[in-house]
């Protein structure tokens, strides 16, 4: 499947716990003031890559602990990301977890999920979600893997089972 991205980082330590392969999706509707990645906002920017190419890059690195979908807004490209996440989770060479950032809230994604947008398809493949828009007035450098105090680190699989957002500490 094709995915429009701004770029990747092969071994990030700032986009989630451990060594992570980070994919920066291209396109974002939020326009948060003070955004860390404003170059990812244009839906026509970046480059188009095949998810097979990304998958092959990811599984080559045995040092990785997981994969992070950042942005832009990953939930604007749910279907290719869900497909990629499913393949990553099924890889048996070494266990990898999958985290996504989103400017939406978990509650918004659940309430607005439908077959067309694929929100549930992607959520079902995630281990963790950092949700909520970046709010400049709530910015904090003390938070692990989050930019502003309104954002949450959510255990997605527990949340789906319990029917509400289960906030956890980043490990």
UniProtKB/TrEMBL annotation:
Residues forming coiled coils: none
Top-level taxon of origin: Bacteria
Keywords assigned: 4Fe-4S, Iron, Iron-sulfur, Metal-binding, Oxidoreductase, S-adenosyl-L-methionine
Record field: catalytic activity: glycyl-[protein] + reduced [flavodoxin] + S-adenosyl-L-methionine = glycin-2-yl radical-[protein] + semiquinone [flavodoxin] + 5'-deoxyadenosine + L-methionine + H(+)
Pfam family name, one: Fer4_12
InterPro entries associated with the record: Aldolase_TIM, NrdG, Organic_radical-activating, Radical_activat_CS, rSAM, rSAM_sf
Gene Ontology molecular-function annotations: [formate-C-acetyltransferase]-activating enzyme activity
Gene3D superfamilies, A to Z: Aldolase class I (3.20.20.70)
UniProt EC number: 1.97.1.-
SUPFAM superfamilies for this protein: Radical SAM enzymes
Keyword 4Fe-4S: yes
Co-factor requirement: [4Fe-4S] cluster
UniProt function note: Activation of anaerobic ribonucleoside-triphosphate reductase under anaerobic conditions by generation of an organic free radical, using S-adenosylmethionine and reduced flavodoxin as cosubstrates to produce 5'-deoxy-adenosine.
Record-stated family: Belongs to the organic radical-activating enzymes family.
Protein name stated in the entry: Anaerobic ribonucleoside-triphosphate reductase-activating protein
């Amino acid at each position: 499947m094709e995915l429009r991205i701004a770029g990747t980082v092969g071994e990030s330590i700032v986009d989630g716990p451990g060594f992570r392969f980070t994919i920066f999706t291209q396109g974002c509707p939020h326009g948060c003031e003070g955004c860390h990645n404003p170059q990812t906002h244009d839906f026509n920017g970046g480059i188009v890559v095949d998810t097979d190419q990304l998958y092959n890059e990811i599984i080559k690195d045995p040092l990785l602990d997981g994969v992070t979908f950042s942005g832009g807004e990953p939930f604007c490209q749910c279907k290719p990301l869900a497909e990629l996440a499913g393949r990553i989770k099924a890889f048996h060479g070494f266990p990898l977890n999958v985290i996504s950032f989103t400017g939406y809230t978990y509650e918004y994604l659940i309430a607005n999920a439908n077959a067309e947008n694929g929100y549930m398809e992607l959520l079902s493949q995630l281990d963790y979600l950092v949700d909520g828009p970046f709010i400049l007035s709530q910015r904090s450098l003390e938070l692990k893997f989050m930019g502003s105090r309104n954002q949450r680190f959510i255990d997605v699989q527990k949340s789906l089972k319990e029917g509400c957002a289960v906030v956890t500490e980043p490990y």
